[in-house]
TrEMBL record:
Pfam families: Cu-oxidase_4
InterPro entries: Cu_polyphenol_OxRdtase, Cu_polyphenol_OxRdtase_sf, Cytotoxic_necrot_fac-like_cat
UniProt similarity note: Belongs to the purine nucleoside phosphorylase YfiH/LACC1 family.
Claim: Zinc is one of the keywords in the record: yes
Lineage: Bacteria, Candidatus Giovannoniibacteriota
Descriptive protein name: Purine nucleoside phosphorylase
Species of origin: Candidatus Giovannonibacteria bacterium RIFCSPLOWO2_12_FULL_44_15
Catalysed reactions, semicolon-separated: S-methyl-5'-thioadenosine + phosphate = 5-(methylsulfanyl)-alpha-D-ribose 1-phosphate + adenine; adenosine + H2O + H(+) = inosine + NH4(+); adenosine + phosphate = alpha-D-ribose 1-phosphate + adenine; inosine + phosphate = alpha-D-ribose 1-phosphate + hypoxanthine
Amino acid sequence: MKFRIFEEYPELKYGISEKSDGAMKFDAKRRDAYFSQLGKATPYVLADVVHGTKIAAIDMGNRGSALSDTDGLITQVGNLFLTITVADCFPVYFYDPAARIIGLAHAGWRGVSKNIVKEVIKVLKKSGGGGENLLVGIGPGIRECHFEVKEEVAKIFGTKEKFINLSGIIQGQLGGLGVKTGNIEDSGECTFCLSDKYFSYRRDKLVQVEAMIGYIGIKHD
Ligand SMILES: [Zn+2]
């Protein structure tokens, strides 16, 4: 998965593991192996996602830890990777190249319904970022083609539609917060559709959730 909007920033390292890399949620050893195999034996911080909207601004002091009750991370510190696990929920990647601040959020339907991207931008602004240069990439997640919801959930989004376009809603929320359309990019990948590439909570009817790990970091030599 690549974002064109991030292309001109080689210092920015980001991505998401694939099914072939293994399940990442409950396996710290596997995560360590994954990051070192990428040539990124870099400290990382994991947000222990709970479908809330708490965003933590972190630094080197948090390295190696998993932050509980947290669905998004931001940092200005280089060589420190922000990570979250996902399997249908969207990883949303933030980079403000002027302020050199990164962010990563876990956006499932609950997070989207609570406008989690707004919370991320709030915290970015507190750290001097989140201005007009802000770039946002939306990673793989469950798309309208497969995200069928019950009436109660549709109601939360103010619709009677059976299928919900979460990525479209996220993009609308970002636009409402002043992020330029040209600065938002959607990977377009559906975790449910791409059964060879990604785990999907809904497709695989997972009990113990198998998940990918999304990451972003600013690498300095
Ligand atoms: Zn699909």
